[in-house]
């Protein structure tokens, strides 16, 4: 069976003010695969991720042109379609940042937060979903007895898995991860890598990474940002 294209990018040009960072970029990302974006610092890797879920709209002076489609519920949706609400897009194409950013609330409430935003009021269902997301993020066994504790007391690696659990609770189709292990020690990074390999069975992953060994271990597709464009390496 031919692989399904989950994200299609055509002619994406991205500017901050008058400065062009990406020019006429095209790329395809496959469903159920992990794609890595590599390349030197400052070339536009994070910028490219932000173009996939319109997060750039929150950045003053940022401007994107071109087309990005994401396949959702069996049909391609144009990311820039004004009738596609940004909140819905970012729930389905979720971002996990380089530095873990737990909310100032308990471990439980961090993961329950997106469910409540989505209108889920049934406490039993919320508790089930929170447990499921924490299990899928390989964190449940470490936190199940301290769910009411402030999430900011967790270790860096645990915080990053909590942020992944928070994104997973909203059942995303695509997870964008910007250097998800760069602030972690080798052991914590290894846990995240194992987690990513498991997650790609249920969603499409696009991961910015500086670590070539990590990319070799994880990636099905590799793109390099070079000369304002994206070139496929493998
Ligand atoms: N808000 C902004 N306003 C103006 N320029 C910006 C802004 N954000 C990023 N840039 C510039 O755009 C370029 C690409 O930045 P980006 O963060 O996408 O690069 P990167 O490849 O992810 O870098 P790194 O590997 O260091 O994280 C850089 O030159 C950066 O200085």
Automatic annotation (TrEMBL):
<feature type="domain" description="ABC transporter">
    <location>
        <begin position="7"/>
        <end position="232"/>
    </location>
</feature>
<dbReference type="GO" id="GO:0005524">
    <property type="term" value="F:ATP binding"/>
</dbReference>
<keyword id="KW-0813">Transport</keyword>
<protein>
    <submittedName>
        <fullName>Phosphate ABC transporter ATP-binding protein, PhoT family</fullName>
    </submittedName>
</protein>
<keyword id="KW-0547">Nucleotide-binding</keyword>
<dbReference type="InterPro" id="IPR005670">
    <property type="entry name" value="PstB-like"/>
</dbReference>
<dbReference type="InterPro" id="IPR017871">
    <property type="entry name" value="ABC_transporter-like_CS"/>
</dbReference>
<dbReference type="GO" id="GO:0035435">
    <property type="term" value="P:phosphate ion transmembrane transport"/>
</dbReference>
<dbReference type="InterPro" id="IPR003439">
    <property type="entry name" value="ABC_transporter-like_ATP-bd"/>
</dbReference>
<dbReference type="Pfam" id="PF00005">
    <property type="entry name" value="ABC_tran"/>
</dbReference>
<dbReference type="GO" id="GO:0005315">
    <property type="term" value="F:phosphate transmembrane transporter activity"/>
</dbReference>
<dbReference type="GO" id="GO:0016887">
    <property type="term" value="F:ATP hydrolysis activity"/>
</dbReference>
<dbReference type="InterPro" id="IPR003593">
    <property type="entry name" value="AAA+_ATPase"/>
</dbReference>
<dbReference type="GO" id="GO:0016020">
    <property type="term" value="C:membrane"/>
</dbReference>
<keyword id="KW-0067">ATP-binding</keyword>
<keyword id="KW-0592">Phosphate transport</keyword>
<dbReference type="InterPro" id="IPR027417">
    <property type="entry name" value="P-loop_NTPase"/>
</dbReference>
């Amino acid at each position: 069976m031919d692989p399904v294209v989950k994200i299609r990018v055509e002619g994406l040009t991205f500017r901050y003010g008058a400065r062009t960072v990406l020019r006429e970029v095209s790329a395809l990302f496959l469903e159920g695969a992990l794609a890595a974006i590599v390349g030197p610092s400052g070339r536009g890797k994070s910028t490219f991720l932000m173009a996939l879920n319109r997060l750039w709209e929150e950045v003053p002076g940022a401007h994107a042109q071109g087309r990005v489609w994401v396949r959702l519920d069996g049909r391609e949706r144009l990311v820039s379609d004004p009738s596609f609400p940004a909140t819905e897009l970012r729930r389905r194409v979720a971002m996990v940042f380089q530095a873990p950013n737990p909310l100032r609330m308990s471990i439980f409430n961090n993961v329950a937060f997106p469910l409540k935003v989505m209108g889920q009021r049934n406490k039993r269902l919320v508790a089930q979903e929170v447990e499921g997301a924490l299990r899928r993020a390989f964190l449940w066994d470490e936190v199940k007895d301290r769910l009411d504790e402030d999430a900011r007391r967790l270790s860096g690696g645990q915080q990053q898995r909590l942020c992944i659990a928070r994104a997973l609770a909203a059942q995303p189709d695509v997870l964008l991860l910007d250097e998800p292990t760069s602030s972690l020690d080798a052991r914590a990074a290894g846990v995240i890598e194992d987690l990513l390999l498991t997650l790609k069975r249920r969603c499409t992953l696009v991961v910015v990474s500086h670590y070539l060994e990590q990319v070799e271990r994880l990636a099905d597709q590799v793109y390099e940002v070079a000369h304002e464009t994206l070139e496929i390496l493998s």
